[in-house]
Amino acid sequence: MIILITGTPGTGKSTVSKILNDKLHLENFQSTLVPVNDLIYEKHLYHGVDEEKGYKIVDIEDMCLEIDHLLEDSKDPMNPMVWIIEGHLSHYLQDADFVIVLRANPHVLRQRLKTRNWKDSKIKENAEAEALAVCTCEAYQIHGERVNEIDTTDISPEETAELVIDVINDKKHFPAGSVDFLQDLL
Predict the structure, then answer these.
(1) Can you list the domains of the chain with their CATH numbers?
(2) Which parts are annotated binding residues for ATP?
């Protein structure tokens, strides 16, 4: 099983993914967490840095190929694995059973990103991307109905991980488009 956890920076992807991985281990699932940003840095899957914004210019195709190699090298029908692929670019991976887009109110997101000491321009850009649902739109274009959106604004990472487990177990579905922060852009 492949679970992609994506969303704008600051929505809780890393924290929720770690909790989800721990919960799956407690339920005797063999799971592996792959933080995409770590993989990008370790394998140097970028072409340089955007000087104005400070972003690494990621080679999406190479990133997807690297993740595909990881997944391919570990396919064993006798020993099924749950893969949690976490990162704001993870939704570009073509193969997934579930795609979870974590969302947060742009006002809350701004506060979360300020604690990271990001430049105001970078915070503004990410808050606008969140209001416009950029990750959801991109994920839906690739994965369609497999996409679920979870609003993390007022719930804990533990509660969010439980909702992800409910989605995986077909107990709940949070369809793409169910979270709307567009009014927060105005």
Answers:
(1) 2-177 (3.40.50.300)
(2) 10, 12-15, 116
